[in-house]
Design a protein that fits this description.
Shape: rod-shaped
Strand content: 5-15%
Distance between the termini: 34 Å
Order of helices and strands: HHHHHEHEHEHEEHEE
Strand order of the largest sheet: 2-4-5-7-6
Structural class: alpha+beta
Radius of gyration: 37 Å
Largest sheet: 5 strands, mixed
Helix content: 55-70%
Number of helices: 9
């Protein structure tokens, strides 16, 4: 977890993080030295407190200059930036050490003193460690913000890719259905079955209104999806008449479950193609759904046969696209199972997370 994840909702810019950490760091520095050094010295509280205030303010100012240098070094290479910042850390620590020693000698002893080499070295090590800590903080701010920016770019790119992929899969289905429907209408007109053709056009208009109003990544209640599906089935019934037998059975809890829009239409369309259109006697299609714990199970069953054996791909591009849509929307949280027997026909079952619309 990044060092400043806790602050992320409020501190999203370099400037905000800088000032927050400056105040936090130097307040902590002031409190620690107050408790550890100033308070234990009897009779020196006022002078010690005055010196600590000047020392903290000077450190704050030098660390601010160090931040400005760090900011103006971003265009340099990593090695040049480190070398430049390290040099300025040494310089800042030296200036701060000299300032602390001179102000301490004047406030406490009322005399201006230059520190000996040994005293300067002892104080310098402490000053250098503090200024180095400041530099570490600045690097942490810099790379934390870079991480946030890159993560946001990645999430945005991923969302845009998923949206484009879903639209591509959705739009790949519509022309296939439209071609079949328009061919059917054309055939009815040639046969002078104009009333049936007009009925199909009206139903097609309602069906397309629903299709064009929604987005491919929208989720709708299963009851609404079934209502839309039955518009499609009504169009196909106009083509096949009594050859198409359709029924639907939904458990009450399944009706309010959320599913991807137009999930069932390509599945039923494939069932019509292989169970109804391919046989003179027609076929039977049954759609059912139920909640199983935290999952929604949807079953599309027909009494037809797969064109290429017992596999999903044998039922056309519609089922392959459905599989890709589910994978894009649910990742590994879905199942798509295909089975076929000579006695009971073809069964396609879908398991997805059970979700419902949040009511306000």
């Amino acid at each position: 977890m990044p060092a400043f994840t806790f602050f992320s909702p409020w501190l999203r810019t370099r400037k905000q993080l800088f000032w927050a950490l400056q105040v936090l760091m130097w307040s902590w520095y002031f409190i620690v030295l107050l408790v550890a050094i100033v308070l234990p010295r009897e009779g020196m509280f006022v002078k010690g407190l005055l010196h600590l205030c000047l020392e903290s303010l000077a450190g704050f100012g030098l660390s601010f200059l160090l931040w400005l240098i760090f900011e103006h070094s971003q265009k340099l290479s990593q090695g040049q930036r480190l070398l430049r910042c390290a040099c300025f850390v040494v310089m800042a620590a030296a200036v701060w050490t000299e300032f602390k020693w001179i102000t301490f000698s004047y406030i406490v002893h009322n005399v201006w003193l230059i520190p000996s080499l040994r005293s300067f070295g002892e104080w310098f090590l402490f000053s250098f460690s503090v200024m180095s800590s400041c530099l570490v903080f600045y690097y942490s701010i810099h790379y934390h913000l870079l991480l946030i920016t890159e993560r946001e770019k990645h999430l945005l790119a991923r969302a845009q890719t998923q949206e484009a992929q879903l639209k591509m899969l959705r739009y790949q289905l519509n022309p296939h259905f439209m071609l079949n429907t328009m061919n059917a209408i054309s055939t009815l007109i040639l046969k002078n079955e104009n009333n049936t053709a007009v009925e199909m056009v009206d139903r097609l208009s309602d069906f397309l209104s629903y299709s064009l109003d929604g987005n491919p990544d929208d989720k709708v209640e299963l009851a609404a999806e079934i209502e839309h599906l039955e518009q499609f089935v009504g169009i196909e019934k106009a083509r096949f008449s009594d050859r198409l037998h359709y029924e639907c059975h939904l458990k009450p809890s399944a009706k309010v479950a959320l599913v991807p829009s137009m999930l069932l239409q390509p599945l039923v369309e494939n069932s019509i193609k292989y169970a109804v259109s391919a046989r003179e006697s027609g076929g039977h299609i049954r759609v059912s759904a139920e909640q199983i714990k935290d999952r929604l199970k949807i079953v599309v069953k027909d009494d037809g046969e797969s064109s290429e054996g017992k596999n999903l791909e044998g039922r056309g591009v519609g089922l392959s696209n459905t599989k890709e849509r589910l994978k894009t929307l649910y990742g590994d949280s879905y199942e798509l199972n295909f089975s076929q027997t000579q006695s009971s026909g073809v069964t396609l079952s879908i398991l997805i997370p059970y979700e419902t619309q949040v009511k306000g």
